[in-house]
C-alpha cells in the first residue's frame, strides 16, 4: 500500500494531505473539461500547477510552516472560488463538462474543510474528543457515501455484480451519515465526555472505514490492471482510499485534521 507508507500525520504531512487532495481534484477535473471550454481548462491547469508546487514543498517539509499554510490556504481558496464559479455556470447550463454538480460540490466542501483544518493548526486550539468525533463523522461520512455513488457512476453498466455491491455500500454509508447527523443533536454541547453511545458509533465507523479503504484499494488494483471497465481516472480509487484512511485515523485519535 504505497500511499499509506508516505502518509505522515505531523503538521507538514497534514498540510500535504490537503494540498494533494485539492491538486488531484484539479487533475481529475482536467480530464472532464470539454474542448469547447479552453479558458476553463487553462485556468484549471494553472491552479493545478500552483497547488503542485506548494505540495512538493510540503512533502519535502521545506520552509516555515506558517508561511506554507498561508500559501496553501491562498491557493486552495482560489481553487475553491474557481470551482464555485464552474458550478454556478453548470447550474445555469452554461458549461460543457462531464463532471456532475454533486462532484463539484464535493470538491468545494473538501477545499473548505482544508481551510478549517489550517485555521485549527494555526490557532492551536483544543477540541473535545466528542466534538472531533461528531465533526469528522458528519463531514466525512457524507464524503464516503458520495465516493461510492461516484464510483458507481464511473463504473461501466456491464459490471452488474460490482454495481450492485457498490450500491449496497452506498446505502449503508448513507445510513451511517443519518446516524451521525442524529448524534450531532442528541449529544449536546459542551461535549466534555465521550458517551458510550458515541464511542460505540465511533468504533463501528472505524471498522467500516477500514473495510471501505480495503475495498477501494481492491478496486484500484482492478482498474490499474484494466480489469474493471470504468471511466474513472486511474488514480481516483487511491485518492478515495486515502480519504477513508484519513477518516478512521482521525476517529481513532479523536482529533480534527
Ligand atoms: Fe478528495
Ligand atoms: Fe472526497
Chart the SSEs and their pairings.
Layout: H1 2-5, H2 11-31, H3 38-59, H4 65-91, H5 101-123, H6 129-154, H7 160-186, H8 196-224, H9 236-253
The structure holds fe (ii) ion (2 copies).
- The termini sit apart by 22 Å
Determine the number of helices (DSSP H or I, runs of at least 4 residues): 9
Low-confidence stretches: none
> Can you tell me the CATH architecture of the largest domain?
Up-down Bundle
Mean pLDDT: 96
Number of strands: 0
- Describe the largest sheet: none
- What is the rounded Rg? 18 Å
What are the secondary-structure elements, in order, as H or E?
HHHHHHHHH
Molecular structure report:
- This protein is mainly α.
- The protein has 2 domains: 1-125, Up-down Bundle (Ferritin), CATH 1.20.1260.120; 127-257, Protein of unknown function DUF2935 (Ferritin), CATH 1.20.1260.
- Helices cover 77% and strands 0% of the residues.
- It has helices spanning 2-5, 11-31, 38-59, 65-91, 101-123, 129-154, 160-186, 196-224, 236-253.
- Helix 2 (11-31) runs parallel beside helix 4 (65-91).
- The longest helix is centred in the C-terminal third of the chain and has 29 residues, at 196-224.
- The model has no long low-confidence stretch (mean pLDDT 96).
- It binds fe (ii) ion (2 copies).
- The site of one fe (ii) ion (FE2) has 5 residues, from helix 2 and helix 9.
Amino acid at each position: 500500500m504505497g500511499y499509506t507508507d508516505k502518509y505522515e500525520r505531523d503538521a507538514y504531512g497534514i498540510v500535504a494531505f490537503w494540498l494533494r487532495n485539492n491538486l488531484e481534484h484539479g487533475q481529475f477535473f482536467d480530464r472532464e473539461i470539454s474542448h469547447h471550454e479552453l479558458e476553463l481548462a487553462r485556468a484549471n491547469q494553472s491552479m493545478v500547477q500552483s497547488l503542485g508546487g506548494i505540495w512538493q514543498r510540503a512533502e519535502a517539509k521545506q520552509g516555515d510552516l506558517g508561511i506554507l499554510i498561508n500559501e496553501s490556504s491562498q491557493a486552495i481558496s482560489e481553487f475553491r472560488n474557481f470551482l464555485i464559479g464552474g458550478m454556478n455556470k453548470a447550474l445555469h447550463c452554461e458549461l460543457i463538462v462531464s463532471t456532475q454538480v454533486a462532484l463539484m460540490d464535493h470538491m468545494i466542501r473538501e477545499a473548505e474543510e482544508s481551510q478549517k483544518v489550517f485555521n485549527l493548526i494555526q490557532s492551536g486550539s483544543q477540541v473535545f474528543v466528542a466534538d472531533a468525533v461528531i465533526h469528522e463523522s458528519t463531514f466525512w461520512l457524507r464524503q464516503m457515501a458520495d465516493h461510492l455513488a461516484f464510483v458507481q457512476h464511473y463504473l461501466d453498466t456491464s459490471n452488474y455484480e460490482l454495481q450492485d455491491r457498490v450500491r449496497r455500500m452506498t446505502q449503508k454509508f448513507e445510513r451511517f451519515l443519518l446516524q451521525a447527523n442524529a448524534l450531532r443533536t442528541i449529544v449536546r454541547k459542551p461535549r466534555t465526555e465521550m458517551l458510550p453511545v458515541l464511542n460505540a458509533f465511533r468504533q463501528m465507523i472505524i471498522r467500516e472505514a477500514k473495510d471501505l479503504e480495503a475495498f477501494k484499494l481492491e478496486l484500484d488494483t482492478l482498474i490499474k490492471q484494466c480489469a474493471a471497465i470504468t471511466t474513472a481516472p486511474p488514480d481516483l480509487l487511491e485518492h478515495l482510499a486515502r480519504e477513508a484512511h484519513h477518516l478512521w485515523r482521525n476517529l481513532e485519535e479523536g482529533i480534527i485534521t
